[in-house]
Amino acid sequence: GKAACECNMCYGGHDCSEFSPDCPANADSGDPLFLEPYWREHAASSAVLVPGWHRMGYSYTGETLISEALEGQVRKLHAVVGNADTNGKFILFGAGSTQLLYAAVHALSHDKNTNTSSPVSVVAKIPYYNLFETQTDFFDSRRYDFLGDAAVWKNRSDSGFIEFVTSPNNPDDQLNQPLLKGPNVKTIHDRAYFWPHFTAIPASPPDEDLTIFSTSKLTGHAGSRVGWALIKDKGVYERMANHLLLNTIGVSRDSQLRSPKLLKVVLEDGGRGIFEFGYGKMKSRWQRLRSTVSLSNRFTLQKVPSQDCTFFQELMRESTPAYAWVKCEWEKDQDCLEVMRAANIIGRGGALFKADKRYVRLRLIRGDDDFDHLVNRLHKLISREERRG
Ligand code: PMP
Hints:
Elements: E1 11-12, E2 18-19, E3 25-26, H1 36-41, H2 68-81, E4 90-95, H3 96-109, E5 120-124, H4 131-139, E6 144-149, E7 161-166, E8 185-190, E9 210-214, E10 226-231, H5 234-248, H6 255-268, H7 272-293, E11 299-300, E12 306-309, E13 314-318, E14 323-328, H8 336-342, E15 345-346, E16 348-349, E17 359-363, H9 368-383
Parallel strand pairs: 3-15, 5-6, 5-7, 7-8, 8-9
Antiparallel strand pairs: 1-2, 4-10, 9-10, 11-14, 12-13, 14-17, 16-17
The structure holds 4'-deoxy-4'-aminopyridoxal-5'-phosphate.
4'-deoxy-4'-aminopyridoxal-5'-phosphate (PMP) binds near residues 190, 192 and 227.
């Protein structure tokens, strides 16, 4: 026979098939696998088979770096979802929104029209997605400095600023609007979560100078590394494109074979299939999470905004965000991450978003087993609460 396999901490037994009760509920990082059942349903129509000789070169016909089919599909997708106005805008694809977010900082801080000699200040309202800061610090240019909380600079936006605005926001789902305004302020709109799975799509699509989307939270193919930016200004587009050219010579041509195939399936029924599946899944998860947390006087969830949704034609649709932003309410629970850890739940602490340690973010978009495990752990933790008052 075969030697016993080396099990991880979640599975035991002689063939690693027994689920271990000590397995932590991992709600920190993880993949958007909540959409996997949708893709299993569409396994054949979404499959790609690429012979070895196909598309070996750098460029497409016409020397472009991007498949025209993909660009056309993205414009069509925004039109049917109603979450962006692509008219008169350039579209630039990147290796996920991660690459584009930095390309945008580069392009906006090299704007000759910004009449400042000092470095541009890069800011985001707290709580913010940590990458904005780590990436800006890491690339460490003389042109800009990351200065933290946008709220601090609200009435002092006379010098050059770049503000990241994420809406709906990671981690707390607020529908953020720019805090800084003025001739020397540029805004990067991160719309990674602006899809019907997670939030209402209002009647008129926002018309922004620079907006970044991604397939990661749209189709769930985070590993394909495909994102795009909608850009109004030609100069900004060209500087971003130049950054991508020098950095990676554009997006993997193989990803550009797979993505159009996936988007074709999405568009076949005008997005109804995938968004109904995604919204349905998130809605039932939020119902379970809410009813579990409602038994507690120790934890609260963020208040999620409701809005009329044009895509589903639903009035006052509650949002069903990708993350729960949990607050530990008891005086003694200063560190909510620790409270969770003691209950074998791994979240992401508020400190990482520059927020209070009383907050912890729990990710809700992995597979069903992961979500079940998380809710069971929370239920156990909450039912152990000593009743107070
Ligand atoms: N922006 C936000 C707000 C995110 O939460 C994420 C990923 N979690 C990204 C951007 C990056 O996504 P990607 O590079 O996969 O498109």
